[in-house]
Automatic annotation (TrEMBL), chains A, B:
GO molecular function terms attached to this record: NAD+ binding; prephenate dehydrogenase (NAD+) activity; prephenate dehydrogenase (NADP+) activity
Cited PROSITE patterns: PDH_ADH
Keyword Acyltransferase tagged: no
Entry keyword Hydrolase: no
Gene transcribed to yield this protein: tyrA
Family of this protein: Belongs to the prephenate/arogenate dehydrogenase family.
EC code: 1.3.1.12
PANTHER family on file: PREPHENATE DEHYDROGENASE (PTHR21363), PREPHENATE DEHYDROGENASE [NADP(+)] (PTHR21363:SF0)
Key words of the record: Amino-acid biosynthesis, Aromatic amino acid biosynthesis, NAD, Oxidoreductase, Tyrosine biosynthesis
Name the record gives this protein: prephenate dehydrogenase
Length: 290, 290
């Protein structure tokens, strides 16, 4: 792969953490990119990104960082996305594509799209990949291998720009799926945002259980730790996701609460048959996605 | 370890699956046991246990299997435990210790203890270890290494028998913790039973979400799969646990629902500070158990 022609001449990555850093590594490994410029308000993280060779050069300012780039990748908290686009807009070269990796799309696309200067294009995106770790030190080139990346074009999105962003994610090893931003937000509310809400609430509930003098979390074993892994995710990032996809998250929380309440009724009633059916349905659905 | 003296002369394992099979393997590796007899109503599984050398011999009947054993380990569904004890009681040798690996203790201990003949002893136990797989083919000698095993002696439990069971689990690599059966049931309701109820309900909720024509489970990635791993656990086993630890499970389900409802209110109110605090508290608790 490293012998292929770099179809991205200069990539600017704003936010060189797990997501941005892993994309940079993947595109470099694939030979898809000429030069990578890093931009990050966390100076220590940016220095590390340069030292690790994840970026070729750390930019001192956002203006300098995006100058001459044909592709800009935004990997900042979803609530910060529009502010960053507003800041970089005057400095973008003609033909530049700006795309993002945020977990919420409807509000982000609606806010960023109108901010783009003529002759440039915004393409909303969301790689369905990640770990509970943060920062460039946690990034790795294969994070996106075999994963899906959802791109959420608006009606106005330039088709060539969309094709280039799709090619970028394919070069990183992902399968690209197109979806409208509203559907994206409902889908990820179900498969990602809801599980995070559940995991965060579960850990707090168990920690807050005060029937005994000792914390019972000390008795937790591998199953509990695996189950609650995602509760170790970045709180500020998840605060923003909950705020930006509020409607989708609330819908899924209520949807889950109804199923949880149904299970509670089966337990309370001691309904052996109903319990076994509930558990068996779940096992079958879960086994089917392995 | 394999040079140590076998302090269990003959071990009968009733239910040679993941739990019973792994204990047999661990004790043999540790040189803690002379002979291992397997008993299982699933004939194919029992044959496999003998073929794999997990047991030295498969018993044709329960009576024959426990005859002459100084230790009997019960690894059958918790609702079947008392019935098995009733069945084996007339065939136990004097001094025999019967212990179990069930996930519920108060009802099991209360039911089994009175069934034991004079000169024999029941010791309730529960190794906090497992995987989502079942059967002797899934068993392995290191399952209990570094894990906790909770023993739940009753007031009448013979101290020497308790010490022998503790020594057995230590030989298998576990740290033994003593706890009264009622506390045990609340602790595991929190760290194990509740997460299973949540995972089962979550998978059913996502599968049952019908806003779109396609099943959105197909978009799930590693995080969702890890999070819902325990929803692939044996439905009949979890039906029995929910029935046998009903009070503890209901208490924890309600306790969780209160925290989940609190989080829902924060999302609905768009309370950025409250959300971040909720997530941060959870992350801190979870990171502390790593």
């Amino acid at each position: 792969m490293s012998g292929s022609v770099p179809f991205i001449r200069r990539l600017a990555v704003i936010g060189v953490g797990l997501i941005g850093g892993s994309l940079a590594r993947a595109l470099r490994t694939a030979g898809a990119v000429g030069e990578i410029i890093g931009i990050d308000r966390d100076e220590a993280n940016l220095r590390q990104a340069a030292e690790l060779g994840v970026v070729d050069r750390a930019a001192a300012t956002v203006a300098e960082g995006v100058a001459g780039a044909d592709m800009v990748f935004l990997s900042v908290p979803v609530r910060a996305m529009a502010g960053v686009v507003r800041e970089i807009a005057p400095h973008l070269a003609a033909g530049c594509i700006v795309t993002d990796g945020g977990s919420v799309k409807a509000e982000v696309v609606a806010a960023c799209d109108p901010l783009m200067p003529a002759g440039t294009c915004f393409v909303g995106g969301h790689p369905i990949a990640g770990t509970e770790h943060s920062g460039v030190g946690a990034s790795f080139a294969t994070l996106y291998q075999g994963k899906r990346c959802i791109l959420t074009p608006a009606a106005t999105t330039d088709r060539d720009a969309l094709a280039t962003v799709a090619r970028m994610w394919e070069a990183a090893g992902s399968e690209v799926v197109l979806m409208d931003p509203e559907k994206h937000d409902r889908v990820v509310a179900a498969i990602s945002h809801l599980p995070h809400m559940v995991a965060y609430a579960l850990v707090n509930a168990v920690e807050g259980y005060d029937r005994f003098e000792e914390s019972i979390l000390r008795y937790s074993a591998g199953g509990f730790r695996d189950f609650t892994r995602i509760a170790s995710s970045d709180p500020a990032m998840w605060r923003d996701i909950a705020l930006m996809n509020r409607e989708g998250v609330l819908e899924m929380m209520d949807h889950f609460a109804a199923y949880f309440g149904q299970l509670r009724s089966l337990v309370a009633a001691g309904d052996a048959e109903g319990l076994e059916r509930f558990f068996r349905d779940s096992k079958e659905s879960r086994d089917a996605i392995l």
